[in-house]
Amino acid sequence: MKPWLPLAMLPAALLLAGSQEPGTVSGPIENARTFAATGKWLVEPKVVDGYFAQAGDNPWQVALVLPGNDASSRILFCGGSLVAPRTVLTAAHCVDRGTPATALDVVVGATNLALDGKRLKVALIHLHPDYVSATQGSDVAILELGDDATPLGKVIPLIAAGDLTADAPGTNVKVTGWGATSSGSGPVRDLRAVDLRIMSNKQCNDPVAYGGAIGASMVCAAYKRTGKDSCQGDSGGPLTGVVRGSRAQIGVVSWGEGCALPDKFGVYARLTALPWAQRCVADRTLC
Question: Most buried of 2, 142, 176, 196 (most Cβ within 10 A)?
Fold first, then answer.
């Protein structure tokens, strides 16, 4: 779940609500557990002013949910993308704090999260070695799945590290995710999408925006000054663009201040600056 600002900045009493043991799972999982127990989200998950995604348009999209079986409710806490047959890319803050692989399942092949797709178990979790918190950058993680996901999903290629044309300012991009569309409601079950444009880090670091907080491993995206955005429920999901005629992933939903506020753009992990992700996908010994 996208930390707006990061859940680590919320009061400890709220963060520990729904947690079995303090510090053993990520903030987004704690939040989802609180929803399962009380029916209330600590923060609201949503794609702001987006549209319903068409079935089959984003076959790499996956949902990170609380563990269970396919007969149980799918309680979403983050998104992710299928980047190899048994590999999911997500945000590190979705699975940090020593989160065990047994604390989550991955749903693949879903557009309607209540009806479509299949749960898969997670075997291993790898955090970027430089990750400390979402606001400090390197907010990416790799999940190793217990089974091949390609019978239900499709792998999306990751943009090559150093390909500066893929995430240049003004580039059209898309974010997808599940979540509420109005204040106080829970996640919707149908995948939604929002079209945005890459902003320059200089603009994102303006004093009226983030005042120098945006580092080299981050990239901002927005629609004009406000009105459309990703938000909490979209954390870990893919930021994609058309690269040489095909969709490729260029970022991971990470953090931001508020949702669709003027000059407070959504912040994403910049994959062109994080070659670790591609190395880890290709060779687990490099994770």
Answer: 2
Would you list the domain boundaries of the chain? Answer: 7-43+59-145, 172-273
Catalytic residue among 93, 138, 229, 230: 93
Task: Please provide the CATH number assigned to the domain covering 172-273.
Answer: 2.40.10.10
Identify the pLDDT of residue 33: 86
How much is the pLDDT for 180? 52
Beta carbons within 8 Å of 225's beta carbon, 6+ residues apart: 262, 263
Would the pTM of this model clear 0.85, i.e. be above it?
yes
Lookup: tokens for 148: 């091949």
Q: Does 139 participate in catalysis according to the annotation?
A: yes
What local confidence, expressed as pLDDT, does residue 183 receive?
40
Extract the tokens encoding 286.
Answer: 């490099």
Task: Give bridge partners of residue 220 from the DSSP assignment.
Answer: 199, 267
CATH 2.40.10.10 is right for the domain spanning 7-43+59-145 = yes
Length of the chain: 287
Identify the sign of the CA torsion 279, 282, 285, 287. positive
Active-site pick, 139, 167, 229, 234 = 139
Rounded distance between C-alpha atoms, residue 263 and residue 20, angstroms: 38
Bridge partners for 248 per DSSP: 241
217 is catalytic: no
How far apart CA 188 and CA 118 sit, in angstroms, is 18
